[in-house]
Amino acid sequence: MTELKRIRRCYGCGIILQSLDENLPGFVPEIQLEKHEVVLCQRCFKLQHYGVEDPLKEPTVDADFLHILSEAKKEKALIVYVFDLFSFESSFVKTINNEIKGMAVLIVANKRDLLPREISDKKLSDYVLSRAKEAGLVVSDIVITSPIKNYNMDELKEKIEKYRKGKNVYVIGAASSGKSSIVNGFLKNYSNKTNYLITTSPYPGTTLRVINIPLDDSTVLYDTPGISVDNSLIFKVEKEVLKVITPKVEVKPRTFQLNSGQSLIIGGIARFDFVKGPRTGFSLYLANPVAVTRSKIERADHTLESLIKVKTVKPVSKVVQSIKDLEAFEIIIKDEKRVDVGITGLGWMTFKSNGQVLRVLAPKGVRIYTEPAKI
Ligand SMILES: Nc1nc2c(ncn2[C@@H]2O[C@H](COP(=O)(O)OP(=O)(O)O)[C@@H](O)[C@H]2O)c(=O)[nH]1
Ligand SMILES: [Mg+2]
User: Fold this and answer.
1) Same domain flag for 133 and 204
2) Most buried among 1, 144, 187, 309, using CB within 10 Å?
3) Is any atom of ligand 1 closer than 6 Å to the C-beta of 87?
4) How confident is the prediction for the chain on average, in pLDDT?
């Protein structure tokens, strides 16, 4: 029998939707079409939810570093994977996650001191563990640390000893997640009982320099160089801007009650537009010196450009000289309870989901993400 169907279009790109062939443009599973009035094609859905497709969005990992990981795997070594709790999304590296699947992993969730004190460590570790599990990691344990506050460094030392089972230890993680600070903290309450010295040398078969710390007469702990996450804002801006966007002390969340049609301009480099949805309280987690300016969406382009021109807000960057230097993403919030919408390397906002439609403007090549709320 002939069937007459109303043509529907993707809310994101406008393409005609179809449920017949996954490999053709505009594909969306039939069930989605039945369930929802407003739908995104699979491509737009993936773009908005995982930020895939654009090669800029997946950080590239040095082949030499992958070599180190494969050696670690052969040795059945313990991986100490250091995350930065404030820049979690840029330290949680998909390529690395895939490489270390099946290995013994001790997670170190670092820079505890940057997040509000009121949040419990339990909540933070539950969150990190759930993300790790989702990424398919086999996690032996987790330690929440802050080497600059000497927080939980003893616990870390004990756990490394417990889980390494007499094998080597590889401290890995994104650049700037705090690996060297962790290792230095570790060294403070470590007495070298071996005949070997702490040395730095290229890792065999690579040009990457590692620090070798002898743990006993036959095993070592390696402090590896950081994986640079090229989709993070911190690798795109000048030093002075980096100083402004990198928090040094506990971040004070800033809450804004917004109606749709309103917009929050971050310094002169990014923007969150609240396009559609009921009045919502948005809590922003950004380094305290970063300015937030409220505006109406219809005037936001103009306001942002004048903020850039007069340079009265922090930060402004050479990377964003006009609105044209920003890339826009639309995010439709679906069914999570509370969500984070963030800009990698800059910060995020947390709010109660209620079917909102948001637009995020960020410097080109910087990854935008949305995840269940961290805190
Ligand atoms: N606030 C805070 N900063 C930290 C912490 N750990 C490291 N840092 C800072 O983060 C930056 C990068 O640290 P580093 O140990 O060099 O990271 P690596 O690149 O992973 O070796 C430095 O400025 C450190 O002072 C921490 O627990 N809290
Ligand atoms: Mg280092």
Assistant:
1) yes
2) 144
3) no
4) 89
